[in-house]
Design brief:
Blueprint: E1 3-7, E2 10-12, E3 18-25, E4 34-39, E5 46-51, E6 58-60, E7 68-73, E8 78-83, E9 92-97, E10 109-113
Parallel strand pairs: 2-10
Antiparallel strand pairs: 1-3, 3-8, 4-5, 4-9, 5-6, 7-8, 9-10
Length: 115
């Protein structure tokens, strides 16, 4: 059974940072690209970032490029999303997923950016 468990969200002031984690199980993590998507209330899931299976290639949505870093540790079956210089518009539930549309995703972790 595929399981994706996100953690690391919270309340942070504008300009702050958070590191999100995604612990994966139930599939061959080291052979699978990983995705982060996010959702704000009343809106669709939006793709945020992708990392290839080895971690050597990454891509980012323009809204987070330069402020986010996706990475992975295949020895720990864990993917990460480092978010810096957070803005109020980054407030959302963040999910790790096995596809860019977030069809197969975890339960999510809430990120709230507010002063």
């Amino acid at each position: 059974e595929v399981q994706l468990v996100e953690s690391g969200g919270g309340l942070v002031q504008p300009g702050g940072s958070l590191r999100l984690s995604c612990e994966a199980s139930g599939f061959t993590f080291s052979a699978t690209p990983m995705f982060w998507v996010r959702q704000t209330p009343g809106k669709e899931l939006t793709w945020v970032s992708t990392v290839n299976p080895s971690g050597s290639a990454t891509s980012y949505h323009p809204s987070v490029k330069g402020r986010a870093t996706i990475s992975r540790d295949n020895s720990k079956n864990t993917a990460y999303l480092q978010l810096n210089r957070l803005r109020s518009e980054d407030t959302a539930i963040y999910y790790c997923a096995l596809d860019p549309r977030g069809i197969q995703r975890g339960q999510g972790t809430q990120v709230t950016v507010s002063s």
